[in-house]
Amino acid sequence: MQNRQLVILYALVGILFLGLAFLWTRVSEFAALPLPETKEVAYLGPSQKPPEPRVRIFQLPERMDFAGEAVPLHQPDVYERLERELYVNAYWESNTVLMMKRAGRFFPVIERILADNGIPDDFKYVALIESGLMNVVSPAGARGFWQFMPSTAKEFGLEVNNDVDERYHWEKATVAACKYLRSAYGRFGSWTNVAASYNMGMAGVTRRINEQQVPNYYDLHLNDETSRYIFRVLAIKELFAHPSRYGFELQAPDLYQLPPYREVLVTSSIANLATWAIQHGSNYKLLKLHNPWLRSDKLGIRAGGSYKILLPL
């Protein structure tokens, strides 16, 4: 019995030594492995600043105006409404960058037409927020840069029919918009109210003024779209006036430009515009691209009438 206990004891001691030997082998192998590479962490000294955060808080201007008329930024709701539109547009970078690029192409001519018609320069931003300077179509059927409805377009001198829709002729549409704006100023005597009326109509603004007995846009309680309208214009104006302040660093070469054109005066009907374009050294795509007011594949012209068609050189 005693011998049996000794055998068991020797066996346990042997197992213990084998376990210790195995453990020592594994520790030696681990010690022989190379240490992992460490990266130095740069210390930001007192003169160094951490990376600028992705979202910044902007300092709004102390004073703003629309067409020379002061914006009452001291009113808390006015300040907040402007701030809302500023952040929305400053952080909708893709849309704002593309508007800035398109403005390089169209603003010089729009600015000239506004000046020639006695309309304040700030109204170019109305066209920008109406359409982004694209020939868009609203759910209600308004079209072009200035978003004219068919009846209003005809009232202010634009031709709208199956072959021709001058709401898409951005220069003629700008002249028509000037006629509307002058007419509205004759009613309101305030360019801010004129701009608001471009969104909700002269009758709509007049009705709100009479109902609420205040003549100032900033004191009127309006529907959400018109309530935001002027502030969208002001936000875009601020971004265009100080682009780098809000993170936009476009240079002149980044802006789109109008290509050089030649004008072709057309005095008789064209049965096939594709054939006509090729005969004039161009093609149907370029014809439509630079003359979007041509709405059909043909052009009918009344006796004594004429159109100027632009073709790129």
From TrEMBL:
According to the lineage, what is the superkingdom?
A: Bacteria
Gene3D superfamilies xrefs: 1.10.530.10
Return the broad EC class.
hydrolase
| Residue spans crossing the bilayer | 7-25
Which UniProt key words apply to this protein?
Answer: Glycosidase, Hydrolase, Membrane, Transmembrane, Transmembrane helix
Query: Record keywords: Mitochondrion included?
Result: no
A GO term for molecular function: hydrolase activity, acting on glycosyl bonds
| Residue stretches making up the Transglycosylase SLT domain | 119-213
Q: Which InterPro entries match?
A: Lysozyme-like_dom_sf (IPR023346), Transglycosylase_SLT_dom_1 (IPR008258)
Which SUPFAM superfamilies does the entry mention? Lysozyme-like
EC number(s) recorded for this UniProt protein = 3.2.1.-
Q: Which Pfam families match?
A: SLT (PF01464)
The family assignment reads:
Belongs to the transglycosylase Slt family.
Q: What is this protein called?
A: Membrane-bound lytic murein transglycosylase D
